[in-house]
Amino acid sequence: MYLNRAIASQARTIINTRARLSALRSQLSSPILPPSPPTSSFISPHLNITRKMTSSSIPTTQNAVIIETTGGPEVLQFRTDQPVPSPKEGEILVKNHIAGLNFIDTYFRTGLYPSPKPEILGREAAGTIVALGSGVTNPYGFKVGDRVMWMHNSGYAQYTAVPAKTAIKIPDGVKDEDLVASFLSGLTVLTLVKETYAVQKGDVVLVHAAAGGAGILMVQILKSLGAVVIGTAGGAEKVALVKSLGADHVIDYRSEEGKDWVKIVKEITNGRGVDVVYDSVGKDTWEGSLEAVKRKGFVAWFGNASGPVPPLPIQRLSPKCIKIARPMLNGYLVEREEYEYWAGQLLELLQSGKLKVKINKIFPLAEVQQAHKDLEGRKTTGKTLLKP
Ligand SMILES: NC(=O)c1ccc[n+]([C@@H]2O[C@H](COP(=O)([O-])OP(=O)(O)OC[C@H]3O[C@@H](n4cnc5c(N)ncnc54)[C@H](OP(=O)(O)O)[C@@H]3O)[C@@H](O)[C@H]2O)c1
Questions:
Q1: Residues in the ligand 1 pocket, defined by CB under 6 Å
Q2: pTM score
């Protein structure tokens, strides 16, 4: 009886917390807010009555990185005593081999994107299925032992319970590291260049932060679509990397000459401006992006590496009849068919060798603070990974 009341009370707390978060989200006008993280990774195992482990070798505690409060990299706590979650109905429990570090992780850490705390950060990982929640086997044919790539929450951990819908089987011959280095970033790029604005052969495209995790994939995919690519990147080493990927022009926007990158873009395009700008830098570049785009052009803001784009008076778009978008990957990948479609496109590019990944560095999970410092300090090129 007491146990039932305790469970009911904790369930009400979770529901209330979710309702408050939902209300908070709807008050905020920004379209960038991610969906509610699932509760499975935060619920203590005794609450999860659908726990159905299939292997006795699964430990009860694990290494994971949690944050209890928002702040700088110092709030990331590597712990060895975190409960291994139980997969609920429709979930799979994955033993993670390698996890991805994404800029969005810093937004949840700093509180730019609100989320419940304590929280295990991390949006993606590759690993092996070690247990299935009930009802999971039939829909997608998963079984214990399958190697999968998933994209959800709580990836900075040895084990993560994720909705089966968010996982795909990794084909033989595709390395875990290569897929994590290109999964969330690559799916973002594919949806941006094919759905947000469908890039056509001959389009002139401006890509900011072109040497970053998403940037290096975007440059390659744009070139494969026949676009003329102008990239921006900070520093000679990054510029050389972006050039080596086939970009037609690369501007070091942190150099004295490159600071006026809008003028350089205008010169390259004979005063016309570019057809589309993909801007993930945000605060420092948003105005320049509006200037650098052509009349009737398109600007897609998809990130806040330097801070968010401030509220934009819609009249700013009138003189040049500019179109804008503020997309997010989670908005494109909702249905299972969408996961399969876009993951299929990415795997095709990887398996055919048309898309090359670049791994910046693989950090042990215990060194996650340094990994965040490097990413925010603009010290990385390509994708940074974490080894749980
Ligand atoms: N909308 C979505 O669904 C979605 C999905 C994935 C990623 N994103 C966004 O895409 C962007 C790239 O993500 P990523 O994980 O691949 O990161 P990343 O590009 O590897 O790292 C961010 C890069 O941004 C540049 N940057 C410019 N100003 C900066 C500043 N003030 N502080 C830090 N970096 C700055 C740096 O490159 P330089 O040194 O060359 O300037 C830095 O390397 C992020 O904005 C992220 O939020 C959005």
A1: 102-104, 184-185, 188, 209, 211-215, 233-234, 238, 280-281, 284, 302-306, 327-329, 375-376, 378, 380
A2: 0.88
Cβ contact 290:310 at 8 Å: no
Position 50 scores a pLDDT of 38
Residues 250 and 326 reside in one and the same domain: yes
Taking only the tens place, the pLDDT of each residue in 48-80 is 323 444 456 999 999 999 999 999 999 999 999
Q: What is the DSSP pairing of strand 274-279 with strand 204-207?
A: parallel
9 in any annotated domain: no
- Whether cis (ω within 30° of 0) applies to the bond prior to 114 is no
Same domain, 47 and 160: yes
CA-closest residue to ligand 1 atom 1: 328
Domain presence at residue 214: yes
Nearest CA to ligand 1 atom 16: 213
DSSP-assigned letter for residue 196: I
Give pLDDT tens digits for 166-216: 999 999 999 999 999 999 999 999 999 999 999 999 999 999 999 999 999
Name the residue range of residue 190's domain.
184-331
The CATH code of the domain that includes 96 is: 3.90.180.10
Q: Which atom of ligand 1 is nearest to the CA of 102?
A: 15
Find residue 129's DSSP bridge partners.
94
Dist. CA 329–CA 316, nearest whole Å? 26
Calculate the average pLDDT of the chain: 88
The Å distance, Cα 215 to ligand 1 centre, comes to 8
